Amino acid sequence: MSKLIILRHGESEWNKLNLFTGWEDVSLTDQGKIEAKLAAFAIQNLKVNIDHAYSSALKRAKNTLEIVLYVLKKDIQITSDQSLNERNYGDLTGMNKDEARNKWGDEQVKLWRRSYEIAPENGESLKDTCDRTIPYFKKNILPKLYNGENVIIAAHGNSLRSIIMHVEELSVEEIINVEITTGIPIVYEYENKQIIKKTELFVKRY
Predict the structure, then answer these.
(1) Cβ-based neighbour number of residue 165 at 10 Å
(2) Are 78 and 54 in contact (CB under 8 A)?
(3) Which of 48, 93, 120, 193 has the fewest beta carbons under 10 Å from its own?
């Protein structure tokens, strides 16, 4: 049996400002660092030995994972790769989400944020994101899970949505309603190359 722990980074500076972030490399806020620590305490309660740690190439994800591993007293190397980066929001990057809704309407902004195939100008759709995250997951992470090793991934709302879409075999219609909260670990248990359990860990918020 093995475990896959996925974790969206803690609150970033642009999350706090309600901006589309994408590939912009912004830092965690103080609240984001606290979220990472609280996530680590929740993971600690699992009493699981983490064998491998992966993050995107963006510092908000990598720093979240560094905090988690520090709390867990796990001295293992973090493998960072841009294949796990957030989706590129193109021309929306840096724009306030409420301002975008006022300009284009709630429905259009929801399509850009949650749909599978619709991309903002000069940006990526969730499908485009899947095209890089899923091959990376299949090649580098899934074999370790099948081998009984435990893995943690710290990444982003949409890169993790794409991985969830793959591992849960969700349809294009089902993934629209999937949202991932910052700092809340989700745990999948694998046995005989199948997911037998999914758990969203309880994290106390301050």
Answers:
(1) 22
(2) yes
(3) 193
Angle at 55 between CA 193 and CA 128, to 5 degrees: 80
Pair 189, 41: CB distance under 8 Å: no
Runs of H (alpha helix) within 59-198: 59-72, 97-104, 106-114, 126-136, 142-146, 157-167, 172-175
Residue count (the chain): 206
Alpha carbon distance 82, 23 (integer Å): 9
> How many angstroms separate the CA atoms of 177 and 173, rounded?
8
Task: Report DSSP state, residue 121.
Answer: T
The amino acid at residue 113 is: R
Task: Give the Cα separation of 145 and 151 in Å (integer).
Answer: 7
Express each pLDDT in 113-157 by its tens digit.
988 999 999 999 999 999 999 999 999 999 999 999 999 999 999
CA dist 88 and 119 (Å) reads 9
Instruction: Give the pairing type, strands 186-191 and 2-8.
Output: antiparallel
36 sits in the region (left: phi over 0; alpha: psi -120 to 50; else beta) called: alpha
Task: Read off the pLDDT of residues 176-190 as tens digits, 9 standing for 90 and up.
Answer: 889 999 999 999 999
- Of 10, 1, 2, nearest to 206 by C-alpha is 10
| Residue positions annotated with a catalytic role | 9, 86
Does 200 score more than 90 pLDDT? Answer: yes
